[in-house]
């Protein structure tokens, strides 16, 4: 009996070994054929090598070791890579349902990228026409990707970028993507050096593939009509050779249609240091930095080139609150936040200001520059209020004598659109050339 059992077990073991060998051999044949088909799908200009390949279950996937992939100036390497069987049955496009890498590196003229781990789903590989002048028929698209230990270099920006984790959905031409990343850093040592960091970044609605193309080719990036874009950045900081900026949260929501571009953005608990451009006046007024909140709500109409600002407010507890609304002409929206206002012209504008301590400091600095005690300068201001012939000036000087008691409202309506910077310069020269008030259509009211 025991002998029969041993014979039976031995026979099963032998049959199992034969079956395993046959199945393993079949898997190897399937893998070899799959790799060959994969190489053919990539095209003749691709070099695809590896030190070892191991088949997955039933040949449905393959794991590569020491992978090196070259195409033109682009090189990808990975210690390990696993991909599901490529699918080319439905079209000429090669599709891979799942692809993963360990210690992945990419280098090309656009920059470099290193990822500790990366998992990708639903890939469509690029295809090209036989005509070298013709555009790519199918660009790279990825349904979902998540990565850890990201570090890259963007040649166009001359900047390093890093993140602990990153995840992205819908990467492809004309596709609105979703991106989220944690512990993100962006650094450039090109003068002036800048080092930015954010605890987290979430971007929805930006066509990241198109943005990548713009950065690598120099082609302009344009938001697609009928699209919505949302950006959230937490704990943002920027430093140069010294601290420059901090913000607790940055929020931005934009909607693009064929007719308008609408945007609502805010910066919460913004801190700006004196080394930030145009903020060098802070120490002269006794401030070591600016602290406040910023809100922008605007609508841009491309057909007319006009920007309607519903709200642009800067609220600082120890300085004051400035609220601006009006109509402007310019090339694009959001110039008030990004500082690109060289082409911005004023059609009409209203500014409301409530002082929280900035004006007395400014008056004190002006008095000191003239060698006068602050009280003497205030008395001079009050005398100007009494003798001013223009009602606008009289209202302004009355407010200036007691800035914390009333709201100052300033209206600007030039006969023709006037560059914003010219309006600002004119306001600064009114004391010596009061006749300029008519040129900008100035009105002043304290209430």
What are the SSEs and their pairings?
Layout: H1 2-42, E1 46-49, E2 52-55, E3 61-71, E4 74-84, E5 95-108, E6 111-124, E7 141-154, E8 159-171, E9 177-188, E10 194-206, H2 208-217, E11 227-239, E12 243-256, E13 261-272, E14 290-301, E15 306-316, E16 320-329, H3 335-338, E17 345-355, H4 358-369, H5 374-387, H6 391-401, E18 408-412, E19 418-419, H7 420-428, H8 436-439, E20 443-446
Antiparallel strand pairs: 1-3, 2-3, 3-4, 4-5, 5-6, 6-7, 7-8, 8-9, 9-10, 10-11, 11-12, 12-13, 13-14, 14-15, 15-16, 16-17, 17-18, 17-19, 18-20
Helix pairs in contact: 4-5, 5-6
How does this model look, in words?
With 447 residues, this protein is of the alpha+beta class. The protein is built from eight helices and 20 strands. It has a 20-stranded antiparallel beta sheet that branches. Strand 2 and strand 3 (61-71) form a beta hairpin. Helix 4 (358-369) packs across helix 5 (374-387) and helix 5 (374-387) runs antiparallel to helix 6. The longest helix has 41 residues, at 2-42. The N and C termini lie far apart (111 Å). Mean pLDDT is 78; it is low at 1-27.
Q: Give the termini distance in whole angstroms.
A: 111 Å
Helix proportion range: 10-25%
Low-confidence stretches: 1-27
Number of strands: 20
Mean pLDDT: 78
Q: How many whole angstroms does the radius of gyration measure?
A: 32 Å
**Class inferred from helices and paired strands:** alpha+beta
**Total count of helical runs of at least 4 residues:** 8
Strand/helix succession? HEEEEEEEEEEHEEEEEEHEHHHEEHHE
Describe the largest sheet: 20 strands, antiparallel
Q: State which percent range the strand residues make up.
A: over 45%
Report the principal-axis shape.
elongated
